[in-house]
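Regression test case RT-17, inverse folding.

Input:
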């Protein structure tokens, strides 16, 4: 019996958060073994491609990749991307998105969601923002109001489950010998557009707060930045180093803690070894907003303390009893960070800078207590937010939501028995009969 075609458009071969999300979702759908899975690979901004070729364990995806869209309408169509790109191509259409990092989704995102049968969001934050964003529709010719644009369609939260066979406590052999400190905070994420304190991941403010908290101290930790702007080139690395130097120069001290840069592309196993290195003691992320925030969940699996913003995607899986979630306020998106998705009228989260310094210092000085709670967070993450748990939830959801499709059945006629006709006696011609008479 043929399986329904499941065609998925996504940035599966890119080094990006959406690339990781795509690979996990596609792998799970393949392993459900209920569909004929085909992939249409897409780009993701300026992020590099080539992940599948450089990571042989993902090579099985290659046989599912199409270079052109198939001529027939697929039974199921999924796009893993931002909602304004959603288009209904299949008989049943699914949009999968991490959504928005602010509190308002653009109008064309709501229109995109309304074109699909089902929306899968990475977090409660994702779904809530899409549902709560309402826009007034106006006629393009007359500018007259045409009512409210909103979305109340079918939806489900499908968290970004982590591969617990990769992300787990191990003995790290990763070389961090150039870091002289035995205690280092780790940040992982892109350094995006925005002036200091206004970029979405808040990298600039993190560096500034770290310098100010530990300047002139006799005993200081280090801060490791695993970051880039758009890629892994030398130009990108130099751009990052210049930004760090500008912040360092603004601190007006000759006795500052050290900030180190890890730059380039790393395999999942290498990232896990970085997480597990004995010098890496905790992760810190002062993000202004996350659709999900994969590195925070990954890091929690190695049982080390986490300091993070108390807002958006990560609050789904970071337990406030086991991690340090920083308080703050909602603030307008700064013009230097605003774009067509992050609207200038929208708001996102700004951490209380006083809390940042307090907890950076307290985790450094009273590490043992934080480490005990981190083990509890690790147990929760393994048991509730694994890849296997995500796949199970996805399978149950598809069984409930995706309709049955008419199947093409080969016509088989019944086998007929051979017909035996009765034997007939030979009849003499009329002429012969007349002669006899």
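Golden output:
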């Amino acid at each position: 019996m043929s399986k329904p075609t499941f065609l998925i458009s996504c940035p599966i071969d890119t080094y990006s958060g959406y690339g990781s999300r795509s690979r996990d979702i596609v792998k799970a759908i393949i392993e459900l073994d209920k569909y004929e899975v085909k992939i249409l690979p897409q780009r993701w901004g300026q992020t590099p491609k080539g992940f599948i070729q450089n990571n042989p364990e993902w090579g099985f995806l290659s046989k599912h990749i199409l270079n052109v869209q198939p001529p027939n309408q697929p039974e199921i169509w999924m796009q893993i991307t931002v909602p304004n790109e959603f288009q209904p191509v299949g008989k049943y259409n699914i949009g999968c998105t991490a959504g928005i990092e602010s509190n308002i989704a653009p109008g064309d995102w709501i229109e995109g969601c309304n074109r699909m049968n089902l929306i899968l969001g990475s977090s409660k934050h994702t779904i809530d923002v899409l549902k709560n964003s309402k826009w007034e529709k106006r006629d393009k010719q007359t500018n007259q109001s045409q009512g409210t644009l909103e979305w109340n369609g079918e939806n489900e939260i499908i968290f970004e489950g982590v591969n617990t066979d990769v992300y787990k406590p191990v003995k790290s052999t990763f070389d961090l010998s150039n870091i002289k400190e035995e205690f280092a905070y780790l940040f992982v994420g892109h350094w995006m557009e925005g002036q200091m304190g206004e970029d979405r991941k808040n990298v600039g403010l993190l560096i500034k707060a770290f310098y100010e908290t530990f300047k002139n101290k006799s005993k200081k930790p280090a801060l490791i930045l695993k970051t880039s702007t758009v890629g892994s080139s030398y130009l990108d690395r130099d751009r990052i180093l210049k930004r760090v130097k500008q912040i360092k120069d603004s601190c007006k001290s000759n006795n500052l803690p050290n900030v180190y840069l890890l730059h380039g592309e790393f395999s999942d196993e290498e990232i896990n070894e970085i997480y597990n290195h004995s010098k890496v003691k905790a992760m810190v992320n002062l993000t202004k907003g996350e659709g999900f925030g994969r590195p925070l969940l990954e890091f929690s699996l190695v049982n080390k303390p986490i300091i993070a913003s108390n807002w958006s995607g990560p609050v789904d899986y970071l337990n406030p009893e086991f991690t340090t979630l920083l308080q703050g306020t909602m603030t307008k998106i700064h013009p230097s960070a605003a774009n067509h998705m992050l609207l200038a009228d929208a708001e996102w989260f700004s951490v209380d800078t006083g809390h940042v310094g307090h907890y950076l210092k307290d985790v450094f000085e009273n590490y043992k207590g934080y480490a005990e709670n981190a083990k509890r967070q690790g147990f929760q993450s393994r048991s509730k937010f694994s890849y296997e748990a995500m796949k199970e939830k996805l399978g149950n959801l598809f069984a409930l939501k995706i309709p049955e499709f008419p199947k093409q059945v080969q016509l088989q006629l019944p086998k007929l028995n051979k017909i035996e006709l009765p034997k007939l006696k030979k009849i003499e011609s009329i002429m012969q009969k007349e002669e006899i008479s």
